[in-house]
Design brief:
By secondary structure, the chain is mainly beta. The chain has strands at about 10, 10-15, 35-40, 40-45, 55-60, 70-85, 85-100, 105-110, 115-125, 130-135, 140, 145-155, 160-165, 170-175, 180-185, 185-190. About 20% of the residues are buried.
Length: about 190
Amino acid sequence: GGLSAGNTTGFALSAASDVTAWDANNTAVMVNGGFPLMGSTFTVTSVSNPSLASLTITSSSIGTQVTAGTQGNIVASYNFSVQNSKLWLKNLNFHVIGSAHLGDIRNVKLMVNGTQVGATLATVGADGTAYFDASANPGVLNTGSNNVQVVADVMGSPSYYFQFELLNGYDVLAVDSQYNVPVSVTNIVGQ
């Protein structure tokens, strides 16, 4: 059955004999470890009218030409519109498309309302992504409009093009600051 408000739930394993496992060849695997294993317990609650934060993302217009060798270029700009309560921006995964050599896009920074969030990336990844992990020190998205930009040095690939895009809602991890739960992106407009 289901759980209702006031119920407490948890996870525990009393002994190795409570675990059955097989490897990729369908051969039984011996289980060992320290038992009993006890997880945390959680109490279920209910909220009569939760006003979880919501997030709508809209791309903003930027310049379309960059001279190879220039530094500190705004290569992507977005408006993150937040409703109900502020959000903690924990990570963003941009997909970089185009004909430019990815290694020429260097010192890539994520800026939220003028403040750098996450570490500077030396280059765009070989897989064409620019993943910013800010889970240790999340960016703050206040209610209302927030300016989110990607800044980079463009060190080569003259006459080629590139574009930073957020293609999927799951490329954004933003957590409601009141309820400490991830929120879905309502819409990514302007891709």
